[in-house]
Structures
1.
Amino acid sequence: MRRTTTRDEYERRILRVQRRIEEGLGEPVPPAELARVAGMALHHFHRVFRGVTGESVMQYTRRLHLERAARQLYTGGRPVLEVALDAGYASHEAFTRAFVDTFGVPPSRFRDAGLPQARRPCAPVAPPARVEVRDEPALAVLSARAVGTYSEVGAAWDRLFAWYLALPGIAPTDAVPMYGLVPDDPQVTEEARLRYDACVPVPPGLDPARLADGPVTARTIPAGRYAVVLHHGPYETLAESYLALIGAWFPSSGYALAAEPVVERYLNSPQSTAPADLRTEIRVRIEERGWMS
């Protein structure tokens, strides 16, 4: 039986991460270590952190550095450049820009006048208006991978369909379900290493020998219970629905996140649909055995 994962448990795990960041302010802490502290898959961790705290890991860490710097300026009389370097900034100018963005005044004025903080509030993350929880069967798919900026995704689809449409018995006019597997979070993985798998279902009777030397591989989208949200609009705004589902809905749902790629199901084609009218299902598999170890 699935063990319920409550919001309190998510918050406890994120609190452990916050404490690890606080204890290591003087040293960079790798994202993979923070994800391990939270007991989450790396590609889910950052969205959950932001959903629970209202800040990204980078924003939270930067804010702690700047708040410590403000205390040092106000109470210690240290030179601004010395405080800036201690906060991890390479120059007085970069530190001043960040300080003004957070407190509304330059650091020298803050030090001299002790002005109250005028920070920008953290933006809360709202869950989607509707999330469907449903069971999906395993699906065998053919896959072509793109690595790099998401502008490379179109080339992966071109390779996949060029190979797929050359199969015997496949007509160019056949409607083919289209899926994307997204294992990385752009906030975690550098752009040049982002992975994306373009997928279509394996056609009946496919000879496995055809996969031996081609640009396409076979894999399976696992069966299981999925949390599904429908995204309306251009693909460039998918990240907003990802964050709402993973970062805001899951912590309040009683469910845990499976450590697998997010599944995108494209319900209409960008070739014949205006960006504002595109519809994409975002599917995140629920971990049925309780919290991930």
2.
Amino acid sequence: MEYKYIREKPLGIYIHIPFCIKKCRYCDFLSFADTDRSFHEIYTAKMTDEIASWSLIHNNMYTVDTIFVGGGTPSILSPELLCDLLDAVFARYRVREDAEITIEANPGTLTPEKLTAFRNAGFTRISMGAQSFDPGLLKMMGRIHTPEEIFESFSTARKAGFDNINLDLIFGLPGETQKQWMKDIDTAIGLTPEHISFYSLQIEEGTEIYHDIVSGKVETLPDLEDRIMYHNAIETLTEAGYGHYEISNAARPGFASRHNLKYWSLDDYLGVGLGAHSYVNGVRSANTNQISDYMSGNTDHGRISWLHKNSESDDISEYVFLGLRKTEGINFDHFRQAFGKNFWDLYSEETEKLIGRGLLERDDHTLRLTRLGLDLSNQVFSEYV
């Protein structure tokens, strides 16, 4: 029975596609613009090799229940190359019949033919980087698509058979008004996606928007305005039937991202590709973020550049601050089952202090962020690191 349990342990696989048509003005992600098909083919071949290498190490210990192809802009790859990646996973791992298989996409890269091919390849979920429906804000962000292309891509995805669609939105942009943001939220809800992600703009050093701010061309949005946007979005989404299940994510019942929940629940996931991170069997690792090193294939098991075996205290700490990202919070009974310890024996002082500051709230079974705690979540998390 123990052996059967080990063999059926679930695993999520993240596959990183670091290619874009162009870099957005706010983007600090590991991605490159202006790459061609031949380079895509070589990179895809390297990733299939990495998947094969990992499968030998895992030796049938896992059953894959989520696959997430992210980027970058995965949808600029040809359907044939994306099929190769999924085929590599299916050939090397057992994959659950009801696996959630997601592809990220930019509306400016989608066609009816591509969307049909993605669905036929086995993708069950698509995450569209809409970011905004306002043409001026899209231009300011450096997005390659128009509002009309979002509507067209969404409609075409439905026709292709996608019944699980996420829309990504960004708020807190320089010069953005409350009216613009709420129009974006209302427009997104009007499309009736199953999932909506809403992220506050993070100003990253070295990006074009960062340089605009430093030079005085634009001003950052005041924190108070940003927080009003955030809470107004939560209220509107909740009224429309979306459950706010994580700091920046809301979904209709049954459509929370199963893959992303792995990150916040300390479940096992394997990262494949340039710069991808993994947490498998208590070990955290990261692939090199140098494209030349990754493509050379000179290092073992996916070009790992960093590896750390978590101690029990590492796992406990991560379980707490990652779990608090979920609006349901941490369940004390689940904590005891996972670690054989009482939460309050470990964290009573820190937790009581945060409750006193109004950042956390508790009942007999759970601990969760308050409304204020959502705004100051990094302060909360730092207490458990």
3.
Amino acid sequence: MELYTDLKDIRSPFPQAHVTIGNFDGVHLGHQKLFDQVVARARQDRGISIAITFDPHPLKVLNPQSIRLISTTPQKIELIERAGIDVLVIIPFNREVAVTTAEDFVDEVLLARIGMRDLVVGYDYAMGKGRQGDTAFLQRQGAEKGFSVMVMPAYFEQGLLVSSTRIRELVAAGKMRDVKRLLGRFYQIRGDVQWGRQRGGKLLGFPTANLCISEEDLCPKRGVYVTQVIYDGKQYGGVSNIGYNPTFGDTALVAETHIFDFNADIYGKPLKINLLRHLRGEITFSGPEELSQQIRKDIEVAQKVLAQERQRKLIAYHLDSSA
């Protein structure tokens, strides 16, 4: 996949450009339907599939307190590439871009710079100053200026509307199985392992890898989770506590993860943590011994959940192989 982070780097319009545009936060199943459609239409036309998005998310500029993002920009890039898109254009968003009219954006960016011949958007998409460029506007522009427009309907998965807003609500509520249904994968947090207070191994008998979580980011419901930990291309089981560790009176929001069957020095190294299931909320224990006993119980439950997940994957693999 070709990646452009500045429109000036696009020297000439793309031939037979089939385009989708959006914020694509989370790259959920609804977004993936858009990408599938653009890729299919581009291949049929022997053209190029192009996704256009913005960084930062427009609401981070216009109303920073109104949104917590599901995915980071690197995650978004990985997931869009995985969808088979040929070209990803990330437009830096600022106040100047925010006041661009919808018609100017169509003329100057989509047509003149990108060379768009075909556009696929979601049912609720709108662009330009004041979000005046809704789907009806885009269809009128297409009729006037010679590009086709396909509007994708709302997508539901097992009765749930797939939307970034709904996924944020579910993450905040700790409903990770519902989150997975809408994302098509487990919700993931990422970060570099930080130095902690060294209590996990020495005091409790369960060493942990600690990732700091910003209060500004989308934070899952506090408590203990069954997790999958990805390090150096390998996957391990684990349990993670997301919160403030009230037993010891800590004040920093941290994800502390005990990784099963793992013994390596990973301070400063990047980890990816998939959240499978919320087990319980944070509890203030009487002391280290009571906390250790509860961690043992959490690990026992987590291992059962992880075994069930491995079994589901094995069954799915065999079904796909026999299809």
